[in-house]
Amino acid sequence: AEYMGLSLLQNGFQLNHSLTSLSLYCCELDSEGVTVLMNSISPHIKTLDLCMNYVCQTGVTEIGRAIIENRCFLTDLNLQHNEITSIEGEFVEAIKQSSIIKLSLGDNKLKSKDLKLLSESFQKQNKIQNLNLIQMSLNTKKIDFMTEIIQNIHTIIVLDLSMNFMNAASFELLAQAIKINNSLQHLNLSLNSGGFRGVKTIVDILCEQKKPKLEYVDLRFNSLSKGEVQYFSNEINGSIKTNITLLIQ
User: Fold this and answer.
1) Is the pTM of this model over 0.90?
2) Which of 3, 54, 73, 150 is the most buried (most CB within 10 A)?
3) How far is the C-alpha of 207 from the C-alpha of 203, rounded, in Å?
4) Which of 64, 69, 65, 20 is nearest to 42 (CA)?
C-alpha cells in the first residue's frame, strides 16, 4: 500500500508516451520507493526531479542501474537534498554513458573522492552543461577536485557553488581554473565567505575579459562591507568592457 501511488504511476507510463518530465519534489520518497520508480519508469522521461526526498546511496545506485540497463534516458536529473553520502559504483558508471546535461547534487553529504569520481566521469561523458553543487561544504580537498572539474570539463556552461562556506583562498583557486575554462558562462558563488580579496579575484577576471565569456556572475552575500560594495560598483563601471550581469550585493 505504501507504494501504491508509484504503481498507479507505472500504469500512467504505459498509457502516456508523451510525458517527458516527472517531478516528485518533496514526496518523502525513500530508497525503496526509488527502486519501485526506476523499475517502472518510462523511457520517454527525460527530466526527473527527486529533490527533497530520501534517495540515499541505495536509491542513487538504482538510478544508475536503470541508466546502465537502458531503462531510462535522462538528460536532466535533480537529486538535491537527498541524504546521499556516496555516488560510487553504478551511478558513476551511469554518468559516463548517460546523456545527462543537467545534474543537481547540491545539499548532500558527498566526500572529496565523490567529486574526484564526478570529474573523471564528466571527462569521459563530455556532455554535462549545467552542474549544481550548492551547500556541499567545499573544504580544501573538495576545492581541489572542484577546480579539476572546472579546468577539464569544457562543456559546462552553468555552475552553481553557492552556500559552500568558501573563503578567499578557495575563490583564488577557483579563479585560476575559471581562466582555463572556455565554456563557462553562468557562475553562482553567492552566500559564501569570499570577502574583499576573494570577490576581487573574480572581478579581476571579468575586467580582463576581452570577449564576453562569463555572462552572468553572482557574488552576493560574500561578507563585504558597504564601502567594499561601493568599490566594486565603481570598478565594474570603469573597467569591465564586456556585456555581463554581475551581482555584488
Assistant:
1) yes
2) 150
3) 6
4) 20
